[in-house]
Write a structure and sequence with these properties.
mainly beta, five-stranded antiparallel beta sheet, three-stranded antiparallel beta sheet, 0% helix
Length: 260
Amino acid sequence: MPREATEPQAPEAGQPALGVSGDGGDGAFGGDGADRGDATVGENAAGEAGTDAALPLPADRFVTGVVSIDRRQCTGFGASSMPGIVEGPPVGGGADRGSTDVVSLGSGGSIVVSFSNAIVDGPGVDFIVFENPFWIGGNSSNIYAEPGEVSVSDDGVTWFTFPCTPTPDTQSTYGTGVAPPYGQCAGWHVVYSTPTNGISPLDPRVAGGDAFDLADLGVTRAQYVRIVDKTNEACPEGGAGPDTNGFDLDAVSIVNAANP
C-alpha cells in the first residue's frame, strides 16, 4: 500500500504473537474461528443489507483455519494477530481507504486457508475474497490494487486455479509493478462490508470484494482456498522497508455453503 494513501498501522501493543514465519518460511495454524466467533450484520430475511434486525452469521461461513502461510520480504503487518485476523467477516474500508484488518503476504507470498464448512457450486457466486484495494483520489477507474491468484481444493492436494494474469507495469509510481486487466484475480474490487455497517458479507450484490464461481473451473466442492500474490512489488534492498507489501488478505466468505 502506498505511503501517500491510508495504510495499515502497526498492531496495538499487547496483541499476541502467533509464530507466523516470514521471508519464505511456512507456518501452520489451528484456527477454529473462536477469535471472532459468530458475526452479526444487518441483513433481513430476504438477504438485503442494512434494513431489518441483524441476523447472526455462523463462523463456519468464513475462514476457520490457516493451513500455511509463506510471507516474503517487506511484510510483517498483521502477523501478530494471526490466524484470527483472516478469520470471521471482512472489515472493509470502502472505496476511499484500505482496511487495516489484514495480513500482508509480500511479493510472491502465499496463504492456504480452510473452512469447517465447505464451498459448493450453487447459483451464481460461490465465495468472495476480501482484500483492501481503494480508489486513488476517489477515482473508480484508478484503483490501488495488489492482485492475488486464487485456487481451490477439496482435499488440499489437487488444486484448481482461476486465471490471474495482471500486466507487468515497470513504470508504476505506486510500487505494485502490475496493472489491469486483472482477469479473475482477487484484490481489485473495494470492500464495503464491515460488521458495523449492516452490509452482508454473504451478499455479492453489496459486499464488495472479489467474487468467484466454482462452475468456472468445473469444480463442485472446495474445502480450501489458496491465494498467491501477483504484485511483483519491489522491496528496498537496504534500510528500513515497508511491512505491507503484496496481497493483503482480510477475509473469505462462503456464499453457497455445504451446510447453510
